[in-house]
Amino acid sequence: MIKFIQCVRSRSDLSLQQFREYWQQYEARVRRVAEVSGALRATLDTGLAVDANLDVMASRGTTAPFEGVAEILWERSPDLAALAQDPAVRAAIGAMRQLQAEFVDLERSTFFFARADDVYPG
Asked: What pLDDT score does 116 carry?
């Protein structure tokens, strides 16, 4: 399976509450991209503001967690060239990017494709 993963950091001028309000709106945009592109599913994860995350950062020397992670999953690699020509896909991606511009710090976020390997049958 192939995933398109978006690890999102909030713009610095937004509160956590404001980010989460945008993130709720973003769910519909991600879902629409998944639907029109023939994806199996899409998921959105919201980073938790909990002490355990601070403990992990301190003990491992890592940066702060992403505020959100969105994933779109396909059975096999999508034909990206064909999808880029599909008007419905282009419109859905355009709507997703338009909302991103309002709340995502693109320079500190990352977007990439990855292969999904199930390692635990849970």
From this structure: 86
The residues near 109 (Cβ < 8 Å, ≥ 6 apart) are 6, 7, 8, 9, 66
* Other Cβ atoms within 10 Å of 68 Cβ, number: 23
Average of pLDDT values for 21-30? Answer: 97
DSSP string, the chain: -EEEEEEE-B-TTS-HHHHHHHHHHHHHHHHHHHHHHT-SEEEEEE----HHHHHHHHHHTPPPPPSEEEEEEESS---HHHHHH-HHHHHHHHHHHHHHHHHB-GGG-EEEEEE----S--
pTM value?
0.89
Q: Output the 3-class SS for 86-98.
A: CHHHHHHHHHHHH
Report d(CA 115, CA 4) in Å as an integer.
9
Report pLDDT for 117. 85
